[in-house]
């Protein structure tokens, strides 16, 4: 498969501050690749280096095999979409889309044909003469994308483009943007701090923290097999504990938490007795009223503190005993636990192998 974007050991420092540190990844043609991380982790800096607005301090960026070092933004086969779509309000839709083609001095009949074609492709046929302020938020989004795609970039860079939309429109646009990307087949590099956007839309996601990539993986693998404590915390809900390894057998170890609970967890082979570990259990991996006698099963009695119902799902917040760390438990959707109430004490458990376990220093 052809690689559209290749980032090799890229670093960016501002004075003595390292904003992007030794980042490497490659994106195959036609993929939706997201860079996900908290505010300030270096996502925008990385994207701006790919776009050519700033040069890396070290490393190389190749687009379709060509080294981009020293090449101006307008001479790179990329386009960038910002959160504020930067459409020209005085021009109609066709004028906005034609702008880049006119700057390239393309011929009028070619421009008209390309504008009509791209409007068709983004699902806005016949919208050319509409004013920008006559469009909905989602339609503006599509015009912004059309304006870039009409220039036929190798890679489209999207900098939190859904950030300014209200929640409902964001939800719709996540699905629309993914459909649109599949339909047009252009490589998308999408940056966001919203893990649900990244998981829903992407073929691959890079989780970024403090200027580094922690893990690059498919959404499913990121969720099911986080490779670092940061990824376990940042992607999806997770219950987190700290414990000390008491003994270890093959890939299983027994852990003791600060409040004296003993658990079994599957962990890395270097978890020697005495090591401090962080371990994580997904809310949906916790089973209510587990059967007795199942091997490697952790058990706990908890008190329900609150019940969170959001229409599709119900979750419990519960604490062991009368206090201690709060746990989130996802209830199965068959509504068999509708009778549970705040204050109830319930037995819960989880399989040792459903927890992710990491050594921490
Ligand atoms: P956000 O989601 O808030 O936009 P981000 O992950 O995109 O955050 P960046 O904008 O890439 O983060 O910034 C990464 C770090 O680099 C921040 O600490 C920022 O203050 C710093 N930084 C970015 N640009 C410069 C600059 N020109 N000079 C000095 N520091 C900078």
Walk me through the structure.
- The chain is an alpha+beta fold.
- The chain has two domains: 232 residues, Rossmann fold (3-Layer(aba) Sandwich); 121 residues, Beta Barrel (OB fold (Dihydrolipoamide Acetyltransferase, E2P)).
- The protein is built from eight helices and 20 strands.
- A six-stranded mixed beta sheet has the order 6-7-8-3-9-10, with helices on both faces. A five-stranded antiparallel beta sheet has the order 13-12-11-14-20. Strands 15-19-16-17-18 form a five-stranded antiparallel beta sheet, with no helix packed on it.
- The chain is elongated.
- The two termini are 40 Å apart.
- It binds adenosine-5'-triphosphate (ATP).
- The site of adenosine-5'-triphosphate has 12 residues, from β2 and α1.
- Keywords: ATP-binding, Nucleotide-binding, Transport.
- InterPro entries: AAA+_ATPase, ABC_SmlMolc_Importer, ABC_transporter-like_ATP-bd, ABC_transporter-like_CS, Mo/tungstate-bd_C_term_dom, P-loop_NTPase, Transp-assoc_OB_typ2.
- Pfam families: ABC_tran, TOBE_2.
- GO terms for molecular function: ATP binding; ATP hydrolysis activity; transmembrane transporter activity.
